[in-house]
Amino acid sequence: MRNRFVLTMALALSLASFPVLAQVAKTAPTSALPRTPDGHPDLQGTYDLATMTPFERLPGDPPVLTKEQAAALQKAEADRRARGRTPLDPNRAPLPVGGDKTQGKSFFEILEKAGGGAVGGYDRLWLNQGTEYMVVDGQIRTSIVIDPPDGHVPPPNAASRQRARGGRGLPTSDTGESADVSAAPRGQFDDPEERPLSERCLLGFGSTSGPPALPDYFYNDLHQIVQTPDSIMILTEMVHDARIVRMNAQHLPPTIRRWMGDSVGHWDGDTLVIDTTNFTDKTRFRGSTENLHVVERLKRLDAKTLLYRFTVEDPNTWDRPWTGEMTWPMTTQPIYEYACHEGNYALGDVMRGARHQEAEEAAGKTKK
Amino acid sequence: MGNVRRLIIGSAVAAIMAIGILPLAGQAYRAPRLPDGKPDLNGIWQVINEANYDIEGHVARPALALRPGPHGPVPAAQVLALGAVGAVPPGLGVVEGGPIPYKPEALAIKRQNQKDWLEKDPEIKCYLPGVPRATYMPYPFQILESAKALTIVYEYDGAVRNIYLKSPGPAPADSWMGQSVGHWEGDTLVVDVTDMNDRTWFDRAGDFHSDKLHVVERYTRTSPEVISYEATIEDPEVFTRPWKMSMPLYRRQEKNAQLLDFKCVEFVEELLYGPYRKHPLTK
Q1: Paired strand residues for B44
Q2: Is the distance from CB of A135 to CB of A142 less than 8 angstroms?
Q3: pLDDT at A10 over 70
């Protein structure tokens, strides 16, 4: 009870002040913003969350880039994309035995290598990443996390570390969809339940569905908002996950848990505030427990942009709440059906492959 | 006067429902409106019928999967343990005007589907239900309608349909839930559903279609708690002529009615991947 109070206070304080980025978001005159017939800001539309701004700040990055720095990084990434689109030379040399284990240079290159393992993952054709850094309050941001001000999620607390020691790392909702096989802990291919939620088509990877809804940095970053007075839907393209925010409603009883939690909303002036609790113990956003509590604030900045701010707390996982912030730019791209499970050949193949490998090892056919 | 009218309409509805025909669209009842004047379909709706078992009229039977017994069909071994829970409840059917007009070769496929139900019904593997089956799955669904958008979210498998209010042109590929384009004809929402694949069924009785399926749905509010639903089915590969199904959709009455999670993908992992566990469970 007391803990809860302290945490709530901490949450309130953290929302009130951001040491480095303490400016008030610049918004268009409120009268000019589109509104629904009931007078609230109209948040409807389809939004593309893809961005070059990493979730956590990269080592050595300043909190804010200059225009010149951002332009250089964006150009380097554009050049890399262009190279990736050129046809492969059929006479190229083969990859070294064991694959290409060189380090990636840019944030995206590091991610792509992690996602594809040493033998490569997605061809450029499949990737649809952000091409620009996100700008909030005129600042070119180098992290979505803004509090702690170092741009990093607080370290896991003692309770969280204790859980992690309890066994092999359990899959989390932000796990990538293909872990590097050679780096995977023992046992991760024993059962489907050991595989990432995204590989099982239960939730998209990278916490794309959230909450908090984040860019996944690979593809399919679209979200659609449909708004009625009583219910506001946030549809996540990946795994067609529709989260319906019930306005001015009570949370579900604690016995009823949901994959994306139970979201209730209210208007704080022109800001939609969404409070989400009742997560399952399988959702595990960055290792969290079912006590995860996420407060999201969605606000329209102009006719084409929303500001999305979220605060995350879970006393079983972090010693303090933390906050992220990003823009949601509107897009005219349509959302297509993401029938994940229906075409999920990968999960069965992963499992069968592991059994095949074990059989070969048992027969002494391959070196251990 | 109002009471008398309600009574008369109520009796008429009861009488019409009793013989399995729905009232004609939009007569007598004027639905609440959105501020733009369109009928308000918002809410959480669900059928109360047995169409998902078998869209055609049917008597109760011992199980969905049967095998011959010494004195007639008995539940197949795989479903025997379910006892009465696995039995098929009887239903008057939702197909209008007699049996589904299958082409003879298609009827043979339907019958084989029914025999192979355990292996073939996409619902068993928790696949997206397609249209119109999504409507009469035994789970609630929510219509979210604003001046700008219309979306239907189904509790079953978290299926979602965006009903385009302006056609985006031909879909780039077939999909499980198809492409839906809606328009209003008076007080009726008419949804044209195209570009569906051939992998969904109409029910647990093997009723099927090809990828030439074209469905036209009609949603008309007929009382504060009821939407009249019709679906015209056209598929020249499978049926000799277009045919129609119809049923009422009822508003869920619970004060806290809301969709919960039915992510059945998780529930079919043992069925689909259990044999590939490192230590498969004993049968």
Answers
A1: B142
A2: no
A3: no
Handedness of CA B120, B121, B126, B130 (dihedral sign): positive
B145 interface with A at CB cutoff 8 Å:
yes
Side chain identity at residue B30, one-letter code:
R
Contact criterion met (CB below 8 Å) for A55 and A145 = yes
Q: Is residue B23 part of a domain?
A: no
- In this structure, is residue A96 part of a structural domain? no
> By the 8 A CB rule, do A112 and A121 touch?
yes
For residue A292, with 0-12 CB atoms within 10 Å meaning exposed, 13-18 middle and 19 or more buried, which class applies?
buried
Would you say A170 and A206 are in contact if contact means Cβ atoms under 8 Å apart? no
Nearest CB to A201; choose among B35, B177, B265 = B265
| Structural domains counted in chain B | 1
In this structure, is residue A263 part of a structural domain?
yes
Q: Rounded to two decimals, what is the model's pTM? A: 0.89
Range 308-367 of A in CB contact (< 8 A) with B: 334-337, 339, 341-342, 347-348, 351-352, 354-355, 358
At residue A248, the 3 state secondary structure works out as: coil
The interface predicted TM-score of the complex, written ipTM, equals 0.89
Give residues 105 to 124 of B whose Cβ lies within 8 Å of A. Answer: none
* B153: CB partners within 8 A, 6+ apart: A233, A242, A244, B141, B142, B144, B159, B160, B259
pLDDT in tens, B214-236: 999 999 999 999 999 999 999 99
Name the residue with tokens 């302006």.
Answer: B166
Calculate the CA dihedral of residues A135, A137, A138, A141 and round it to 10 degrees. Answer: -40
Q: Which of residues 175-234 of B touch A (CB under 8 A)?
A: 175-177, 199
- Total structural domains within chain A: 1
B20 in a structural domain? no
Beta strands B141-145 and B72-75 are: unpaired
